[in-house]
Amino acid sequence: MTTVALSHRLADRGIDRQLLLLVPATVFVVALFIYPFAYGMSVSLQPAQGGTFAAYQAFFTDAYQRDTITTTLAIALPAALLNVLASVPIAYRMRGRFRGKRLLTTILVVPITLGTVLTAEGLLNFLGPAGWVNRLLTTIGLIDTPLRLTNNYTGVFLSLVITGFPFAFLLVLSYLSGIDPSLERAAATLGAGWRQRFLRITLPLLAPGLATTFCLTFVLAFSVFPSAILVGDPSGSTRVISIAAYEAAYVRYDYAGASAAAIIMGAVELLVISVVLGLRALLYTGSTAGGKG
Amino acid sequence: MKRAVVASPAAWLVWGTVAIFFVGLAGVIGSVVVNSVGLRWFDSWLPEAWTTQWYAQAWDEFTLLPVLTVTLVVCALVTGVSVLIGVPAAYVLARRSFPGSRALYLLFLLPILMPPITYGIPLATVLYKYGLAGHLSGVVLANLVPSVPFVILTMTPFIEQIDPTVERAARMCGAGTRHVFTRILAPLLVPGILAASILVVVRTVGMFELTFLTAGPDSQTLVVALFYSMSAAGIRAQQSVDAMAVIYCVMMLTLLVVALRFVNPTQLVARVKEDPE
Amino acid sequence: MTGFDRLRLDGVTRRFAGADALTDLTLEIRRGEFIALLGPSGCGKSTALNCLAGLLPLSGGSIWRDDTRLDTLPPEKRGFGMVFQNYALFPHMSVQKNISFGLSMRGVPRAEARRRTTEAIRLVHLEEHARKLPGQLSGGQQQRVAIARAVVVEPSLVLMDEPLSNLDAKLRLEMRTEIRRLHQSLGLTTVYVTHDQEEALSLADRLVVLRDGRVQQIGTPEEVHTRPANRHVADFIGFRNLLPGRFSSAFFHTEGVRVKGTPVGTLEDGGPAVAAIRPEDVTLTGELDATVEVAEYQGREIAAEVRTDDGLVLHLRTDRRLAPGDKVRIGLPADRLLIFPS
Fold first, then answer.
1. Per residue in A30-72, pLDDT tens?
2. Which end of chain C is more exposed for a tag (fewer CB within 10 A), N or C?
3. Superfamily of domain A57-281
4. Which chain A residues in 19-58 lie under 8 Å from chain B, judged by CB atoms?
5. H-type helices in A128-251, by residue range?
6. pTM for the full predicted model
7. Which residues of A touch B249 (CB under 8 A)?
């Protein structure tokens, strides 16, 4: 009787045998995500030389390593911001239905699908000293010597825009489509012009979605690794934190240093995301349908 | 009338931006494609002559056949396992509320929110420690880390939109758990599983960092092989690298075309509700 | 499967997170009876139905079919049929497959299953739509499929959870007749949940009125209609005029009005009371002077809101053509004016 009562009480709180279906996935994530993280954490605290925090100390005292944080942020934050901000007006214009919308969105998915490695290869050809862009600019007489667009900050930034912008755009577009258009019509009947409708109705409802989009785009940009090596200047202006971590692990075989760099990278990223999400929590985040849905 | 006048410059700006983006995109892909079939392309708009020799060279030099095989095997394994593990979990998360369900959801969200390099390095270290990395199993395990959560996150809203009373109705018709699953749930889940699988395949083929960190010489997927041949540029002819890039490109675009038969473009990015029909 | 004499709910109780959704429901259902569970939303009527179906476990009490205990059985073993509010048709199966699903689950031989399915489809007039998918049907047609699916297995009990609430007014009336006709011709035992008092009164043999998870009254439609057990039932069942006041020396007092009425329940002399009367029972002959404030045209009748000179607001229905501002004299017949303890 007591076991029946107990299982009933648990069932009342939503606990029963069906929850066992969660076990494989949970075990999996714990074993292959949480455990390695914890392991990496412990490795980072057991450096070959020095005290517990020596690896972190080394990272922060060595300007060559420390500056990778600012380098990464200097690439990822503007790229993510530009991608999201550019998406808003474009998505706002295209949120309705029109012919060719599906084709347009399909083309936009292409760079996301191709990934950073291929984009990097393309950028090297396209923007290189003998590429079509420089050729065009010299031919029409705008410049005399080819612009240096690759193997520097510009190259990495452009590669992040090419893969990140469609991503941000599609997300913003779907958030916008989720906002009940009759809300704007209602605002119009109350005398709001398009500017007011956008600023007072659509934008506040869209803002939480923009925050989420920014986070996801930022994650993409923050983890920039192949393009930083291929179209960037991996030992100088685009030496991002993931390169530092990679070098520590696979060039210097300093696992403590590599783990420390990886964990610092995760921490910095989570910090940015939590700031954004913290701001997002201040916004209205309910249904964007107008009442009866 | 007034609206049109006001909106017009904005429209120009918007469409102009889009056009520039598309021109850039076309240039990026186009220059790779042109280079891969060009012979002697130095200081001119287009190569002086055309050839397919780079493809043959790429095929031999980069041992493309084994690389493609590895890519396909990895994709198949990752997709299969992540669906098997992810769908039951998604079902429970979609249907039930229990203490800690939000925390669990967050746990599944983390691997997607984290840059692959961040967890890839410790993960690779662990996998090497247990002798799992450096060959196929390590690549598969590493790629599963974001894939399982991805399946969960795409399937949860899909399952949520299947009316739970349908399952109750089946029970009231006399169906036991097994029949509810085989006769009702499975057929209703197939489209969602198909969509999730294709998205996992696309992501796995394109996943560079994790594969890069865990692959050994004979367990490289196409994108990693491409990266290695690119970063070793100078040793190999640039055109031959581009030929390989085109092969990768064609593979991805084929996948994309297949994927778009089952999902709409937005879903490739994230599962957000599109405007209801 | 079909045969039982009595289905007994004995102190059925269901708690959600500590709060009682249904308390101590005791009810005996006879074979062939049509029972309606009636009450406002959140009263526990759907909880009761789901407990009976087996879709919710009981927190207390038991359910018996004759001498078989049912509440420990899973829903698929109870042998009931159910019609859901949103129909819950299997979206990937044709009408035919939907209806025959229960038969195949019960292992009915194929030939017989086909015969019974065809019969059920004919019964709900869906012959032309047998091969369509639910998504291709109108709401009313889906409703018919849901009913056919529930009755084709000849269940010992059919449970219906607000089956008409998603239909428009005209279709609702049609389907109401259809449900009653099916119930009679198939000799089904039915438990029907609704918040629509008119639906419950017209369909059921007996009504169970619930409020806050507790039974307020069990009785025939006529009993509930004319003699609601308390002011809450009265409120719910169409006594639109509920006047708070005092009961003393056999009279009801409020706002300068002193009228005779019919006491229901134990009334304390001099204590607070509520008088209830239906709008249609308020007469236009009497001694209360009032002014018409709002008049709604409703076909053969006018529904009016009047205010007495003492400030009492009353609703009434009459076939006289009233207009706002009209002076009227109204009466509250003692046999129709029920007085409840407050």
1. 999 999 989 888 888 888 777 788 888 888 888 888 888 988 8
2. N
3. MetI-like (1.10.3720.10)
4. 19, 21-22, 24-26, 28-29, 32-37, 39-41, 43
5. 132-139, 153-177, 181-189, 194-196, 203-222, 226-230, 241-250
6. 0.79
7. 114, 118
